[in-house]
Fold this sequence. Notes:
With 200 residues, the chain is an alpha/beta fold.
Amino acid sequence: MxxxxxxxxxxxxxxGWRGVPGWLSxxxxxxxQACVRAISPAQAYVELGAWCGRSLAATMEASRDGVSHYTxxxxxxxxxxxxxxxxxxxxxxxxxLEVVTHYRYKGKRVCFFEQDSTLGAxxxxxxxICVLFVDDHHSAxxxxxxxxxxxxxxSYRCAILFHDYASEPFGLAKPINELLRPxxxxxxxxxxxxxxxxxx
Length: 200
Ligand SMILES: C[S@@+](CC[C@H](N)C(=O)[O-])C[C@H]1O[C@@H](n2cnc3c(N)ncnc32)[C@H](O)[C@@H]1O
């Protein structure tokens, strides 16, 4: 597992996304932000697994004006994140709400749904998704359900990034590679622990 244990629960938005507790590294943020810069205002960024909003903040700092950001998190009382962070799901959700409010005041279009990721897909009525960031429960079953449920909402040319794709203990690479195969999908490589696939 490459999670550091006991994250610092403090939020410092003067530091931007780096002041939000979470696991996203500089290298991963750079890769995610490069994808997000390509989103047009008619399309959406969707994130599965918000925690305190670190990756969400990184994307809102990179996106063009008018792009819609949606994030889904069910905040179960026990989760891989709670185990590793050293603070509760309630504290994480309260922090996320502060982050969402902060970026709304800056003019960003952002919605948080406290909902299971796959159920969220069934109700999703936003614009076609140009970038999907998958970072909720790290198991093969969850990744497969997410891809099946979110697939119909993806724009024709889109990118999907999987956090912890390359982190050994989770075993996510094999099921993802089996579902996102050439010629429709191209694997573009790994940034930190994050795998990037694009539809071609
Ligand atoms: C690794 S954390 C997300 C990290 C976040 N992207 C960041 O940048 O810090 C995983 C999150 O997935 C959430 N989660 C776990 N199972 C879920 C599910 N079935 N649906 C939605 N969210 C879930 C947890 O509550 C946790 O906040």
